Records
---
Amino acid sequence: MELEHIISAYIDEPIRDVNIIQGGHINHTFLVTCAERYILQRMNSTLYGDCLEDIEHNYLQYVRACDELRDDVGQWECPEWLRTNDGKFFYRDHMGEYWRMYRYISSDGFAKDASDDDYIAVGAGLGKFHRILKACDDIRPIKTTEHVHDLSYHYRKYEEQAGSKMPRIEEFDRLIDLNIEQLLDIHVPTSYVIHGDAKIANMIFRNGEVAGFVDLDTIMKGSIFDDLADCIRSCCLDEEGKFDFMKVSQIQRGYEIGYDADFTRDAVELLGKNLVRNRFTLGIRYYTDYLAGTDYFADQTPEQKLERVCDLLIW
């Protein structure tokens, strides 16, 4: 089998099982069980095919920073990418697709009935992560993801779909027209190194604390406010899809502990505004992907994309 051939390029162990891991929007991910467990990923070639050298460079920057700050941030797991038999991180199959393999890192996960302390721990983990990223002083931009939080960029891409052949959703177009001007007026500082997709699904949980991050391909120069917004959006919505600001404040408090710095009053206000802006940006991205038929988000049917747009644009 093709997967077994790819796996054998990385390890020489009897394979017991290979199972696909559902839920990823970008790469295709498999859990490989041998004497140990591993993660095998087929990279999204549309996004990353021309950027693998830069992704590798950024990963090695992060590994170095983790080693340097290990004594400062406590227990912290850094994903260990494996090299192929010829010493490369990425394997190219006969179809021209690129693959990557790394050791599986267990995680306790985030409890559905999370307590106040759990939300504080999430914020503290993100704060620690940003402290590590501060030591990454030579991050290269990944051209396909560097605009991921840039509302003006994605609004231009949306406007380019005026002639789309896909059926338009009048309510979505109306909401964009109604809100875009005020949201474009929200500006966040973008001089930091961030994860770029800091949702709780990309966090490693251990003994009630965040002990690391995975899916590091989106590490970029950007705004900590966008990382905070991605994190908050992934775990602080109530049953009606509205932000639970008690949970938001707990993550903010934890972040101040982990990053070892307090938010100013202006920063707290900007955080609140950017939660709406960040969510709206993702909604436009999904709607533009639907209109353009580009399938940026993997394994999403048009119907699923529109459901996501509805959740993100209407608040």
Note: Residues 286 and 305 are 6 Å apart (CA to CA).
---
Amino acid sequence: MSDSEHRRLADVLVGYSTAVQPGDVVRIEPFGRASPLARELYASVLRAGGHPAVHLAVDEVDEIVLKEGTAAQVEWIPPDQERHLTTGDVWIVIDAPANTRRLTGVDTERMAQQLTARGPLQSRYLERSAAGQFRWLICGYATEASAQDAGMSLRQFEQVLHRAAFLDADDPVAAWKRFAERLEQAGSFLEGVSELRIVGEDTDLRMEVQGRTWIRSKGLRNFPDGEVFTGPVEESVEGTIRFSFPAMRRGRQADEVRLRFEGGEVVEATARRGEDFLREMIALDDGARRVGEFAFGMNDAVGQYTGNLLLDEKIGGTVHLALGRSVPGTGGVNQSGLHWDIVCDLRHGGEAYADGDLVYRDGRFLPGVLSS
């Protein structure tokens, strides 16, 4: 990305996504390769009247602690990070790893131990966010590793992120506000629905969503963004689902994942590859077998699988569910150290039914379902 592109992105993140105000304490966490964007974010926060602090993330340190640390060291949370997430105003993470597979050789139980230890802190900052006390954002950033995962050159992947973030528009903020109106329509319709049924190849899944809130993801927590999601009634999920794309988690993956639910719990989990990893993640704790989130991806500017979950879960025409922790604000109450989003493509023959009526086919809500 050019300096002007970094500056344009930084201004959108600070002025629109996190709406930094005078006096806000802003923690910026970039990987080293994202330092050009970090510099522009720092400057943009200053122009907005905030107090920025940059905390550089180093790729290899999480691998080292998970392989060599004691149990206490694996579970330890840096005090400065905990203090900011519980008392600060804004947290911006730039997701730019040099090696997306760096944790492939790490023992899954050690990963689960770390996730469990960080669960209460994650719940705390999500609760603060839902209450309007804290703004957080994860921003995708192109690296050679992420481009290779997508089967693209670095410049091609940069362009994918650029389009998905509406940075090719004359006024990106205005484009996000127009897109937000579409998400509002979808969320308003879904909040009038009691039961959803998702049908596709090897998929027939039902869940109750009555009384739950559908959150419109319009570039304020993820960037790029574009989904509407809720927390389904925990005991209501029934049936089967086969996921079109690999299930990715901290550089590990399971391919062709199939889940069967009874009474809201996973009772059968299989994968063509990575099945042991899948089962170990589901066994993390009692809540890891339940669904904490269900979502419709609605960003049509994201059209192809990239291996980057930040993008893939937003693909227009897909749905995804997250095993584990519910997101505060949805009405979901599932507790877990896990929150694992897995994506299912409905663009080729998939359907969704709302209270028995067909409302969605081939990745689109049917004409007349959403207001114009």
Note: The mean pLDDT is 93.
---
Amino acid sequence: MIVPLGMTIYFSTIRYQLLYPDRSGFNGWSNYEFFVTDPAFWPAILNTLILVGSVLAITVVFGILFALLLNRPFRGRGLARVMLISPFFIMPTVNALVWKNMMMNPIYGLFAVISGALGLEPIDWLSDYPLASIVIIVSWQWIPFAFLIFLTSLQSQDQEQLEAAVLDGAGSFSRFRHFTLPHLARSIAIVILIQTIFHLAIFAEIFVTTAGGPGNQSTNLAFLIFAQALQGFDVGVASAGGVIAIILANIVAIFLIRIIGKNLAT
């Protein structure tokens, strides 16, 4: 880890354009200035925040919902758990291809077929709603992770408290609000921390489906760094972007760790 990080920091301070290798040399802060003043930089930051926040909200809500449903005994519960967990084991690239070609294709995708059957005009999701499409694709793969964490936490909940609450006349919503949700607080904090770190670097889903477009509507920070390095052939500027991404990720991680620490302390 230290060697690639050191090389990235070094490359971010030199002029390293692959198309002009003879023009290399110390560049100071110019690479950072060029990356930050790129017209796509602030849209990429905003898209990254929207993407991370939306995926976290969806995965936490649906993860809790599915955990509550599958924590109850019913016939076929084991099969339902396996089916719900299975999307997490699909590679991100394969996951994106499945959604792009089988679900969101405006001609023969499942959504287009359903829209046609209802007499509606098919929607070109990846062109009309690119960022929302990425949110759906990533959320579908990460809901099982949240579900597993929450289900494990629910199985350790004190059932005697719930039974006593039922005898006292507490309804389902009251039991969830005053007993289940506080019990899940630590698990929610862990899910948010882990997923935030991973979602800040989402790349495969964007590369396979929208390629950051249309324009820069679905470009996040990770894809912008890729574009500078492998499309613009400017390793110096891309390395500066990588350093900025590392700093932002650490700021977010430290902030979340402190929140979790306070949560665990209480």
Note: Residues 61 and 184 are 12 Å apart (CA to CA).
---
Amino acid sequence: MTAFQISLFCTATAVMMSSAYASEGWMTDLPAALQRAKQENKLVLVEFTGSDWCTACLALKRNVLDKPEFREWAGEHFIFVEIDLPQSPDFPAEQRAQNEAIAEHYQVGGFPTILILNPLGNVIGGFHGNVRGIKEAVIPLEHALKADELYHQAARLSGTERARVLYQIYSNFPEGKGFDTPRRELRDTIIQADPENVTGIHHEAAVQEQAQRFFREREALPIMSPALGELLERQLAEALPENRPAVMLERCQYAMCTAETVDDITAVKRMFEEVIPLLPATEAADIRHYVDTYFSNPAALLQMLKASRPR
């Protein structure tokens, strides 16, 4: 048991008197659920929810989690845990403190979030937000089950063979709040096991690190400052091919925010035209619609932009 799990256990002992389960089949004591998962050779499905305010959480519960067919399938593989952070003042304070600590530990940034944990409490899969139905929810859960199998397989291997198996997990690992840290840790493990870069992950890591650095640099500057314009030009010159479209879009936004003439607006449109072919199909279609809608009247667009600027 980790130090985090021990601290939760101490808090959980005070909570158990109030409630052992959120609803039928759902535990609220994560350390106990991890222990049970170990005993039953299962994984833990953790739902982070706001049961009395989060409409997407209620929809996920109604459309997926409480469906008998889902519960029957998932119950064969997972122990269910609900980590609830409702607005109700009647919710037990001890339980709230425990749940807040768990959400902070796993860096959960939005509700609903589903995390799949192995019995050690490590994140191996899950998904964010509401999904349209059971079939859509099952896909990432099946990825997590496969990841668990691959982790066990990788434990028996070493070197590049181990790296190749871990890379299969990495390829389907979810992204976003709650997943970023374990995904990065998995990436770093693969890099250490793959010094010859047979998986190609060294380049992926370089792309991700550059994108994160670029974002931090931009966030430190005011959106209309000349320094930001200079920074974007430098980032565009440095950008790896995978990061160029994002920098180009930021450059388009900056150019719109600082446009002073109709000619400037025309130049921004050309910048958008340059980046559209580099974008994924769905995003390209959205940007194309945006450009066709707002740039059809450059003078009106310029007037709207100037009116929206802070005075």
Note: The longest strand covers residues 43-49.
